[in-house]
Design brief:
The chain is of the alpha+beta class. The chain has 2 domains: 173 residues, no CATH class; 184 residues, no CATH class. Helices cover 37% and strands 16% of the residues. The chain contains 12 helices and 10 strands. A 4-stranded antiparallel β-sheet has the order 3-4-5-6. A 4-stranded antiparallel β-sheet has the order 7-8-9-10, with helices on one face. The protein has a two-stranded antiparallel sheet with strand order 1-2. Strand 4 and strand 5 form a beta hairpin. Helix 1 runs parallel beside helix 6. The longest helix is centred in the middle third of the chain and has 31 residues.
Length: 368
């Protein structure tokens, strides 16, 4: 989630019985609610460095302990002149709780977190929440604003807001499941049969990268004439918990379709314009030998492919024999793109690698 939301959550938690531990708990909770995002300092090393470290160890078990102690020390020192400040041990416990809350709020986003890093660098996500949830922001801000009159009002409003948060997460979890369920109806006969050995995606908790090899047979197991289904996913949109983008990953392309769960056509048995309604956007994903053996094995591409859940690749060779290989994460495509309407503006979640005829990487960059 965004840091405004994390800050408001920290302030809300300070109005629960946690705030009775003594002075310094509010400071500790606000600091802890934002502490895992201290990994933003990795931007000093460039975009690839940030992509490598973001939502890594600071969002893992060591981050909870180390950052919890640091936040407690800051809050302890800040309130050192107060005689009724909370004990350092209590501030540490409160801080670790605030950091855990931050992690649990990031986990249901489609961006995900590396929950077990640095011991395991796999990403995990539930795909329920957008990075910024306007409904969550409004509920948190309203609870803090209208609960200023008394201590009792603050505690009551904090409890109400936490219940609204739980209801919001529950609604989005149910809506996400429904978006996956209606996908076969949404895509109809265009949905290919499952690939042999396709990953099991029935669990609510998604984990990636699943591909451990960069060999062509693994990345593109069947030729273009024989498409098969790798995975179906649904990622949330910004405005409504009932609007989703369904992503169908096939062996040689991605099919994208935005769906409103309130659309009556999802439950109708027949419809005259059924074919038009089922139109989707297809983005090709062909792993050529150049893309696989040269571009994808470059350090920058490995970082990007370790981050990207749905990497798609395109290649173009100019008159000089330089091949430009572009990887893009289909979760974060701005708008719907197609082969006829390629992405022309910079995409922050993309990587470009240029390869010479002899296989040398001559240029590589993130975000353009």
């Amino acid at each position: 989630m965004d840091n405004v939301t994390h800050t408001l959550v920290g302030l809300t938690l300070a109005r629960t019985p946690l705030g009775r531990a003594g002075r310094g708990t509010t400071t500790a909770l606000v600091l802890a609610s934002n502490a895992p995002d201290i990994d933003v300092v990795s931007l000093a090393g460039g975009s690839a460095s940030y992509m490598h470290w973001h939502r890594g160890p600071t969002h893992g078990p060591l981050g909870i302990i180390v950052l919890g102690v640091v936040c407690a020390a800051i809050a302890w020192a800040w309130e050192r002149r107060r005689g009724d400040r909370a004990s350092f041990a209590m501030l540490a416990v409160v801080s670790m709780l605030g950091i855990t809350t931050h992690i649990l709020m990031d986990l249901p986003t489609s961006y995900g977190i590396r929950l077990l890093s640095p011991f395991d660098w796999h990403w995990f996500a539930f795909d329920w929440m957008p990075i910024v949830d306007i409904y969550l922001l409004v509920a948190l801000a309203a609870g803090l604003f209208f609960g200023r009159q008394s201590a009792e009002a603050r505690r009551r409003n904090a409890a109400i807001v936490l219940m609204l948060m739980a209801a919001n997460y529950g609604l989005r979890a149910v809506a996400h499941h429904e978006a996956i369920t209606v996908a076969p109806r949404l895509f109809g006969p265009t949905l290919p049969a499952p690939c042999p050995g396709a990953p099991n995606t029935s669990s609510m908790l998604d984990s990636w990268p699943r591909t451990q090899s960069l060999e062509p047979a693994t990345l593109n197991p069947l030729p273009a004439t024989r498409r098969c289904l790798v995975e179906i996913a649904a990622v949330p949109t910004f405005l409504s918990p009932l609007d989703w983008r369904v992503i169908v990953q096939a062996s040689n392309s991605y099919d994208l379709r935005d769906v409103e769960l309130t659309d009556a056509r999802l439950r109708a048995s027949t419809r005259s314009n059924d074919g038009f309604w089922r139109q989707t956007v297809r983005y090709p994903n062909i792993w050529t030998p150049t893309a696989t053996h040269a571009a994808a094995t470059s350090p920058l591409a490995r970082t990007f492919l370790g981050f990207s859940r749905f990497p798609a690749v395109r290649t173009f060779t100019d008159a000089a024999g330089i091949t430009t290989v572009r990887f893009i994460d289909m979760r974060f495509v701005a708008g719907l793109v197609s082969l006829e309407q390629p992405v022309r503006r910079p995409q922050p979640f993309s990587a470009t690698v240029r390869v010479a005829p002899d296989g040398r990487v001559v240029d590589q960059s993130i975000g353009r």
